[in-house]
Amino acid sequence: MTSDTPAGRRFRVFTRRRSAPSRARRRIGAAVRMLAALALAGGVYTAFAPGAFAEDDRQLSTAAQEGKALFDNSCITCHGRNAEGVEGRGPSLIGVGSASVEFQVGTGRMPMTRQEAQAEQKRPVFDETQTKQLGQYIQELGGGPEIPAGSLTKDVESDPEALSNGGELFRLNCSQCHGFGGAGGALSSGKFAPSLHDPTAEQIYGAMLTGPQNMPVFGDNELTPSEKQDIITYISLQLQEDTDPGGLFDLGGYGPSTEGLAIFVVGITLLVFAALWIAGKS
Amino acid sequence: MKRRKLDLAQVPANIGKGVDDRFQAATPLRGLLNKVFPDHWSFLLGEIALFSFVVLLLSGVFLTLFFDPSMREVAYDGPYTALRGTEMSAAYASSLHLSFEVRGGLFMRQMHHWAALLFMASIVIHMARVFFTGAFRKPREANWTIGVILFLLGFFAGFTGYSLPDDGLSGTGLRIASAIMLSIPVIGTWLSAAVFGGEYPGELIIGRFYIAHVLLIPGGLLALIAAHLGIVFKQKHTQWPGPMRTNDNVVGERMFPRYALKQGGFFMAVFGTIALMAGLFQINPIWLFGPYRAAEVSSASQPDWYVMFMDGLVRLMPAWQIDIPIGDGYVIPPLFWPAVVGLGALFTLPMLYPSMEARRLKDHKSHHILQRPRDAPERTGVGAMAFTFFMVATISGANDVIADKFHISLNAMTWAGRIGLILLPPLAYYISVRICLGLQQHDREVLAHGVETGIIRRLPNGKFEEVHQPLGPVDDHGHPLPLDYAGWVVPKKMNRLGALAPAVKGFFFPVEKPVEAPVSPAVPPVSGPGTREEITSGR
Amino acid sequence: MTVTHGGSHGTSTGTEPVDVNDPKLSRFDIVREGARRDDIEIVTYESQFDGQNSKAEKRIVRNIALLFLVSGLFALAFVVAFIVWPWRAELGRSMGDYFTPVLGITLGLSLFLLGIAILAWAKKLLPHEVSIQDRHNQPSSDDDRLITGQTMVYMVDELGVQRRPLLKGAIALGLAPLGVAAAAPLIGGLIENPHKGDEPMMYHTGFDPVSNNGQLVRLTRQDGSPVRPDDVSVGGQITVFPGIPHGATNEHADSPTLLVHLRADDAERTRSAAEGDEVNKGGMWGNYVAYSKICTHAGCPASLYEQQTNRLLCPCHQSQFLITDNARPIFGPASRRLPMLPLEVDEEGFFVARSDFREAVGPDFWERP
Fold first, then answer.
1. Do B45 and A272 touch (CB under 8 A)?
2. Looking at the predicted complex, does its ipTM rise above 0.85?
3. Computed from CA positions of residues B344, B346, B350, B355, in that sequence, does the dihedral angle turn out positive or negative?
């Protein structure tokens, strides 16, 4: 674990340690922070509360205005006016950020066709520009996590540890649901973790950042942007692009269950036919 | 003295003479080589197991040359970039070395694994053949028991082998094995501590499993396979009923030349199938699972298929924990019932079945003639019941993969398994008994009335009836005399009359020419087609 | 076995012993006589072809020869591929990725075709044969049974154990300890007391302050860095290990813990459930809760965290635990809840375990109180 991220974390650790405040000061500090947070929340509420201000007063960029038009056409039924959510139909989108929009809309999970255990991936309804516009609208509406610009994978030539570090993090954080080979897996009562063979780097990044559906959130403090890039590097190079060295078919990467099926469907079938031929009347 | 000229043609004879002088081998060897084996495809299933065992030994020896059964922590420094620098056990590092740095090592590893799966699969279908044909009856009960023990040994050989690479999947399996040991009342913690040398996972388990996997279990397998084959040789193979075949003889081919040659060819076919599968299908990509860490797991963590039934039973078991309120209180966890009691029962019941059946039928004679499944409906029913149970349990062992890939709720799969495990086996018993009786009934009808010809005849009184072709002699009125039920294939189509078995030539399509026109046997032979007049409309 | 049997199966034609030294006999006649001496009657043994060198025979011979040749070609291809094919697998798509498939296909086809060639030879070229062998499954003769039985009883009799009770007792007393002595090293060497010491392994994890010189143990990541509350996002989770040397290795296989930051309303429910429980009381810190990652059923990491339904699923046997209700098992074979790690934040703002787990961690066992 010699990647630079833990070192950075440790650095923060030391600065904190040096300025460790007394208990009383911490309490006062906590109270002040609490008040500030309340004030901010109140402010945000007043700012976005429906009817408090006329909609047109808000300054939306051109892209966001395009996005708002799309939103009012396709999303408003469930997510409500100004994306405040409709009880029992769709959650509020205030604060989910453009990362969430780009993941949900970009993978075709939104708009949903019907209410079910889990939004299914399907052919996206909106193209890339429209998705960006929608994201921009939601971003300007309530802020939230954004997918950083630039490459989300690392170059293993210049940074050889990215791949092994990514693998390490993948096995600790991702494989329990998505499987060792990224083939996906079942969750409780009809929910599932999807396969990782198709999504793009942006979509994986967005999913980690926002925790769509039942996926836990991996914010920038749990997995730093660099660690996220390591994981994406591992997924794209090792699980998506690498050719399996062990055979022409990987049997889906589901582990022993498909291997067991194969020994009967291929091995036993072939040999039973051979036995039939051997003992058949010539 | 003139040196005698070496006569090359006489060399084999001279060697043979020399050997016999010393070992007196000619007489017993003649008896050994002169052995008649009955010929039927279903008698070749056990051979698949034997041959894959040979492949297992060959490939396994190769693997030991590179494997290091040590749990010492090392940092990986091999060519597989995605693990470089990762801390892992030497066992896992050497498995990776074997896969990536030994020329053909990955191929050998995959051959070994596929051969293991094939070994267990062929044992199961061979067992099914022996069971459904009644080949386990006296005098072969001992060999049946040896067969069941062979499956058990194969089960443990497979599990120990699965654990050796010390990858993520291996470790998860070991963890569950330790939990199963812990679940045993009274001695659980002591047993687990003894096997793992203290707290799980410790430092010893790979070394211990290694010696079990490469010496103790294969030794047992080898000894029992030798005994299994020796007994078959001594008791001679069972045979199907049929012409000339009695309980006191064997009808078939001598071992030499034809039978042995076929066996040799079949060995090559089995070997070739394993090699093909090892090249075509990737099996157990250990490099993706990573080194075993107690905190890491993959979804769809499953054992190999022959352990999956146990895993399935464990998954289906309801959370019934038994608390024993004595002293501080004691616990029998729910894991104990399917994993320990269930596994024990699944191995003991088959062992006891031959004596159970003999006692129920009060049958203490020796049987060398097999029974068709339909001729012993209750046994077939019991077998179908056991097979259904095994299948539901095995499918439940993979229920998360099925739930995910077929978009079924995982909880629904579990409930379906729980209900299916109770409801389906009796249903399978009932259905298979009914099918057996129906098939038997049909055979008896054919024997009594002859083969159905499909020709409908109108009697003078206006009644319609189907013409039957008699199988044997007829009485004065042309009605067939009823034949005895012999428990063997009855011809059901006219062009197969008189054949011993459904003798359709050719493998994928019949070579035999179909009969051109059905001839009603109940009427006197029809004269040749030349004399027949064409039926026209009369114009 | 030099005695000639005959006629016991009713199909043999002659019972007259044949003189195998008779020069007029063909080799097959001798083989047939040998078979007869082993009670095998060769009923039919006929060539599958009409006459020598028939057209059909030649065709089959050609086909079989072809199979042998093709098998040899594939074997050659195997050897050549083994030597010259680039065999090191590289990341991405490389020739080396196809080394194993090429080996498998060439060797597999070579062996399989060889098998078919041999089988076709046996099946198509060798004469068709029906032989009948007597099974000899009669039990040994009554005389033999008697003699063997008497010999065994005689042996026991001669030893006179029945008549010499002192010997009988001495054997029992002498041999039984020897048997135990044989088993003792094996069993004695393997036995380990699972409950020994002040920190019995079944009830003790790396979070026990005892193993950290009495100091509370920090919750750390896999790389050893400690965790602050704002390191875990709302709806997020993180796997934590005891912050002691080797805390994240398999030496402390029972210690991995899942630290979850719940949404406010879920946290409220979780808290009220925990407060109502004797053991888990006060175990949460703010909206954070930590449960053992080791499933109480079979020990797999029960780490499939569903952040909306607040369930933890174990991928091995599908036990499901409800985070908001003390990680009570709500589905599957697990019968016991996941133990909660009581949380606190130290002066420096890092998570520490207030104490070790208050319940036994990991799979259930008999003595668990």
1. yes
2. yes
3. positive
